[in-house]
Specification:
This protein is mostly helical. It has a single domain, classed as 3-Layer(aba) Sandwich (Rossmann fold).
C-alpha cells in the first residue's frame, strides 16, 4: 500500500492495480537510492536555510541522497549539479 510521505509527488497515486509503470521504469533506470523521511526533511531544511529555496519533498530527494551519503558523486573536477524542483 502507498504510505504518506513528504515526497508526495513521487508517491505515484496510480493505484495498486497498475501493472505497467514499475516495469517501464525498471527497464530504463540504472540505479535506485532510497532516502528516509528524515533525510527528506533535512534536505528541505537545508535548501531553505543554506540555499534560500523552498522545495517540495519530491523535488529534494536527490539532495537528500547526497547529504546523507547514500549517493556519492563520481570523481570530477569538483563540480556537482543536483536538480531541485517543486
Amino acid at each position: 500500500p502507498e504510505e504518506d510521505t513528504l515526497a508526495n509527488a513521487l508517491a505515484g497515486g496510480i493505484g495498486l492495480e497498475n501493472r505497467y509503470s514499475f516495469n517501464l521504469v525498471r527497464e530504463r533506470v540504472d540505479q535506485y537510492i532510497k532516502v528516509s523521511e528524515e533525510g527528506i526533511s533535512d534536505a528541505i531544511r537545508f535548501s531553505l536555510t543554506h540555499l534560500n529555496l523552498v522545495v517540495e519533498g519530491g523535488g529534494v530527494v536527490a539532495l537528500a541522497a547526497l547529504l546523507n551519503g547514500s549517493w556519492k558523486p563520481p570523481d570530477t573536477e569538483g563540480v556537482v549539479v543536483v536538480l531541485l524542483s517543486g
